[in-house]
Amino acid sequence: MPIVAGMGDEVFKALADPTRRKILDELAERQGQTLFEICSRLSTKHQIGLSRQAISQHLAVLEAAGLVETRREGRYKFHDLNTGPLERITDRWIRREPPESHR
Amino acid sequence: MPIVAGMGDEVFKALADPTRRKILDELAERQGQTLFEICSRLSTKHQIGLSRQAISQHLAVLEAAGLVETRREGRYKFHDLNTGPLERITDRWIRREPPESHR
DNA sequence: TTGATAGGCAAGCGGCAACTTGCCTATAGT
DNA sequence: ACTATAGGCAAGTTGCCGCTTGCCTATCAA
In angstroms, rounded to a whole number, what is the distance separating the alpha carbons of residues B19 and B97? Predict the structure, then answer.
C-alpha cells in the first residue's frame, strides 16, 4: 500500500467545499502559487473575501487529500495541483462496457 | 440547458458523506432496491445501523444530486443509480494531453 | 538589528448537516 | 373494516466544519 495520501474519504471531503474547488481551479490555471497569491486571486477574480487563515486551512485539507502538493523555498511556500487522486475516484461506480465483444 | 439535476455543487455535497457512498455502492451492485432493502443491506453487510429516516434523507440528497432516480410502483419505491453526473465532474481539473501532435 | 513580509498554531464562535423521535399518509392483505 | 407494511413530514438535538481572532515563528531587506 502506498504512503501517499488521497486514497480514502479525504478526497471527497476536500471536494465538498466550493471554495476549495475554486482553489483547485486557480491552481489548475496556474501552478506554484503562494498562499497570498491564491488569496488575492480568489478575492479579485471570484469575490471570495476570506481571511488568509481560512484559505490556509482549506489548503491544508486539500494537501491532506493529496490534491495539493507543496514545496518550500526560503520564506515562500508554493502550491501545486495534483490531479492524481481525482483520476479514479468515480470508477468505483461507473461500469465501463467492454468496448466491443470482438465477435 | 437540460432540466436534469446534478449539474452543480450538489453532486460534490452528495458524495461527501461515507454512508451515501455506501448506498451508491449498494445500488451499483443491485439496481432497483427499496428503502427497506437498502437499510437492511447497509446494516448486515456494512454494520451501518442507521434509522430508516436517516437512510431516506440520504437518498433524498442523492436524488437531488441526480445520482439516484426513483420509480414508484404501488407502495414500493425503487431506487436506481444514475452514474451520469459522475462522468465528467473531475474533467474540470484534469488536463488531457492531446494524444499525439501528428508529426 | 529592526521592520516588513510569508506563513503557522490554537482557541473560540456560529451555522449547518446528520441523526433521532414522533406522528402521519398510502397501499395491500385478510 | 382492520392491520401490517412501505414510505413521508417535521421538529429537536448534537457534533462537526468553516471562519475569525490573536499571537507566534521564520526569512529577507534596509
Answer: 35
Cell of B53: 429516516
Domain definitions of chain A by residue range: 10-86
Q: How far apart are CA A50 and CA A46, in angstroms?
A: 11
Å from B79 (CA) to D16 (C1')?
30
Q: Are B95 and A83 within 8 A, CB to CB? A: yes
Q: What count of Cα atoms within 13 Å lies in the side-chain half-sphere of residue A62?
A: 29
- pLDDT number for residue A1: 46
- The Cα A70–Cα A73 span in angstroms is 10
Per-residue confidence band for B54, with pLDDT thresholds at 50, 70 and 90: very high
- Chain B interface includes A88 (CB < 8 A): no
For chain B, say whether A93 makes contact (Cβ under 8 Å): yes
Q: Does B93 touch chain A (CB under 8 A)?
A: yes
Q: Is the CB of B50 under 7 A from strand D?
A: no
CATH number of the domain located at residue range(s) B10-86 in this protein? 1.10.10.10
